[in-house]
Amino acid sequence: METSIAEREPRQKLQQLKGGKLRRFWNNKTLLLMCLPAVAFFIIFAYLPMPGLYLAFINYNYSDGIFKSPFVAFDNFRFLVINGDLWRLSFNTVAYNLVFIILGNVLQIFVAILLNEIRRKWFKKITQTLMFLPHFISAVLIGLIAYNVLSYDYGLLNSVLESLGMEPVKTYSDPKIWPFIIVLTFLWQSTGYGSIIYFAAIMGLDNEIIEASEIDGANAFQRIIYIVLPWLKPTFIILMLFSLGGILKGNFGLFFNLVGANNTALYPTTDIIETYVFRSLMTNFNFSIGSAVSLYQSLFGFVVVLTANWLVKKASPENSLF
Amino acid sequence: MSNFKKVSALLIAMIMIISLAACSGSNNGKNDNGKNEGKGSTNQTDGNKAGDTSKFVKISYVVLGDKPKNGQFEKVLAEVNKRMKEKINAELEWKWVEWADWQTKYNLLLASGEAIDLITIGTDWLDTWGNAQRGAFMNLDDLLPEYAPQTWNSVPEEDWAESKYNGKIVLIPENDYTQWVNHGFFYRGDWAKEAGISEPIKDWQGIGKYLQYVKDNKEGVIPWDAVAATSTWGGYASSYTDQLELPISTGYLPVFTTKSFDEKFTVVSPVFEDTFLQFATLMKEWADKGYWREDVLNNKNDNRSALRAGLSGLDQHHTQTFGGLRVTMDKDQPGSELQMFPFARTGGNNLTELSITHGGTSVGAHSKNPERALMAYDLIRNDEEIYHLINYGLEGVQYEVKDGKRVQPEGYDEAKDAFYADFWGGRVDKFEIPSVTTWDQLETTLYAEYDKIKKPYPYGQFVFDKTPVEAELTAITQVTGEMGPAITYGKAGDPAQAVEQFRSKLKTAGYEKVMAELQRQMDAYKKLIEG
Questions:
Q1: Which of B447, B462, B450, B449 has its CA nearest to residue B352?
Q2: Contact B259/A135 with Cβ under 8 angstroms?
Q3: Out of B13, B482, B510, whose CB is closest to A279?
């Protein structure tokens, strides 16, 4: 037990070590080096570009550059509110993401547990691979596949329906069914990938605990409910907090390719901030307005993460991020 | 192995940081220190004074199109560069903005602050005024007379006047090249004849009749395998009103026009007139009759390929495209006798000549060698040998001249020998050689018809300053994109209701404010033109 905790928790190990900071640094050089690419990634792609957010408040001029272009305060945010669409868009985006996050995680945990219970190795591997594959299919292809299945005149679905003597359905003119199609597609694509993370977490569960529970007479369900699920809780919370940050950032590729750029009949239920902005700015190509939107999304996400973290801290302090 | 990984990760991180620093360096290079900030190999020159060609430089030219892959382009460019090297000690380098997502790539290239020497522009399709407003181009007033004297002298004063933003010349217009890019429907002459349509079609009812015939009689053919990416509303408006289009983009549908050629300074909006309701109603009718696919809004088919394969009965594009397509269709579908119904034929009062800035060339704001770039441009445009190389390729390989016409030489293989440079930045009629791949009756039919009704382009010098209404214009663009496709292809339910909703959304988006601003600037333009 002793050693396994020390291995799992590098932070504790750090605290146990005596000596100066430099020495601790040196002792953990491998771990730190392994962090480096990730740290570099965030510095380069997340922190260094931050001054660029200033773009949202200026009227950007190519030859003057970012810091010499005229300052216009909140002018760039105006177009978002003029139409009064901001509420509908934010609602759609948030609602979709909430469903994605909650259903997605629940399903991933469910699948991970199922995988863990499978005893035959070859079956487990094949299942894993098959579920993992959709992750690698690009959204453009998914859009094409969906079109070939759902298209009214030549789609697979309608061919089947007609051969069964049923009425063909006009999928692409009915906004009501699209939330289901989009959510299903998302789950199909992400479950395999996400379940790997939970599966890995389950793998880290000490076998001795499981064995002890078996000796005490716990059945499979009790084992899952009292041991595996609580064990997954921290992973779940962290993943949840991470995804909440992007709650106002839509999955542009998925929506754009499934719904298409021109199918305006479906917009009431499928329009999210990204597709809206894409439509508005493709012809005008205004960087400043684009930055304004992205700033709005990021700020919103920031507030949501802070709130969620605060709630988590109240409920179970040891699992909060900060 | 793990050591190798660590080191390579570190390396990558370092490369990223360095390249990032380099990028920002190039952005600020101009502001910091004039020119010649040490970067790249092309800019070692120390001040290119008055035609000084002692230092060898490379000049980039940005064009739109997919990079040719058969190696012919490189061969031709090498020939061109032999002459360039000899005459001005420079070499040209073509940079292709490929068609996939070209708008974004083109604009990003300008925004990146990269040192571009020459670049294709187009005020009506490449947002050139917008880019000029954002400071993407260099002012050429002082450079032109000195470094491109032939071009400077051959372009008349009034054409330079149309090349100015804020009183400064920012582009060289393609002012001496005849082409018609007015849009219309292409339909098959053989099928029209079968349908009992013997006269050229002159209105949308005629097209409707033709489509119905195709629907009823041509098994397996979609009358018009339309793709919803473009709207025909502009076409309908030019058929059934006398209004003139304005060079102001409102996205999917044109919202603002001017009343007529006689009242060319009065801004109106056809969307708020009965014409729009008629259009919406007609399109709903066409949709319900099944002239296009039920899923037209999601259709990703290539209609032109379908037409060429005999699977679609109609296409929509401009006269220039028709000229080439007619020849192709005569080959693909012998006897098809492809015809064009130009939208402006119906009313006949609003066909304007092409703006001379539909094509043209500008110099990038961050160019390191604007002098040499202009010298090179002067040669492309005025040296017949170089002009023919760049536009047609090598004589004997890509083309031969027979009876004053360009023909493909014996043994010409399209895949192996095809050549194009997509130079649309200053073609001139005097060097053009007619080609057999353009329909030989184009001039006697359509061009002759156009010549009878054409009007001079009145908005050459009109540059709309979007700044005061940027937000409203963006909001309007969004509304046209949100509702336009469904209305254009009859998928918006009851047309009257849809049109009403569309209008009210436009109003919320600030339609009236843009209209007022546009009229204000148009009044100022009127003063400028009429003195």
A1: B450
A2: no
A3: B482
Q: Between chains, do A260 and B472 touch, taking CB under 8 Å as contact?
A: no
Do B63 and B202 reside in the same domain of the chain?
no
- Convert the pLDDT of each residue in A106-154 to its tens digit: 999 999 999 888 888 899 889 888 888 998 988 889 988 888 888 887 8
Last residue of a domain, one of B395, B424, B448: B448
Per-residue pLDDT at A10: 54
A273 to chain B: closest CA residue? B478
Residue B392 and residue B295 in one domain: no
* CATH code where residue B382 lies: 3.40.190.10
Q: Which residues, including other chains, have CB under 8 Å from residue A295's CB and lie 6 or more apart?
A: A53, A56
In chain B, the number of structural domains is 2
Check CB contact of B114 with chain A, cutoff 8 Å: no
Q: How far apart are CA B97 and CA B202, in angstroms?
A: 37
Chain B partners within 8 Å of A75 (Cβ): 470-471
Nearest to B459 by CA among B168, B162, B129: B162
The contacts of residue A283 (CB under 8 Å, 6+ apart) are B103, B127, B249, B251, B477
In chain A, which residues have their Cβ closer than 8 Å to the Cβ of B133?
61
Q: Cβ(B311)–Cβ(B214) under 8 Å? A: no
Give A284's pLDDT tier (boundaries 50, 70, 90).
low
Smallest Cα distance from B241 to chain A, Å: 26
Instruction: Say if residue B346 is in the same domain as residue B362.
Output: no
Q: What is the DSSP letter of B67?
A: P
Give the start-to-end residue ranges of the domains of chain A.
Answer: 1-48
B114 and B136 in a single domain? The answer is yes
- Asked if the structure places residue B28 within a domain, the reply is no
> Is B3 a member of any domain?
no
Q: How far is A201 from chain B (nearest CA, A)?
A: 24
Token code pair at residue B44: 């070692």
Residues B526, B377 share a domain:
no
Asked whether residue B149 is assigned to any structural domain, the reply reads yes
CA atoms of A72 and A86, how far apart (whole Å): 21
Whether A280 sits inside 8 A of B477 (CB atoms) is: yes
Pseudo-torsion of CA B493, B497, B500, B506, nearest 10°?
Answer: -30
Domain presence at residue B331: yes
| DSSP SS3 for B118 | strand
Q: Are B135 and A63 in contact (CB under 8 A)?
A: yes
| Interchain CB distance below 8 Å, A265 and B9 | no
- Domain coverage including residue B429: 53-179+355-448
- Please tell me if residue B293 touches chain A, with a CB cutoff of 8 Å: yes
Q: Are residues B474 and B525 in the same domain?
A: yes
Is A264 close to B470, i.e. CB distance below 8 A? no
The residue assigned the tokens 């190696």 is B71
Q: Are residues B349 and B417 in the same domain?
A: no
Mean pLDDT by 10 residues, chain B (531 residues): 52 49 38 36 40 87 93 94 94 91 85 90 88 91 94 94 91 92 95 94 95 94 92 94 89 92 94 96 96 89 93 94 93 94 93 92 94 95 95 92 88 89 93 89 91 91 86 89 92 93 94 95 91 74
Q: Is B361 in the same domain as B374?
A: yes
Considering CB atoms only, which of B127, B472, B486 is closest to A285?
A: B127
Closest CA–CA distance from residue A320 to any residue of chain B (Å): 30
Tell me which H or E stretch contains B87. helix B72-88
Please indicate if any CB of chain A lies within 8 Å of the CB of B3.
Answer: no
Q: Distance between alpha carbon B435 and the CA centroid of its chain, in Å?
A: 22
pTM comes to: 0.77
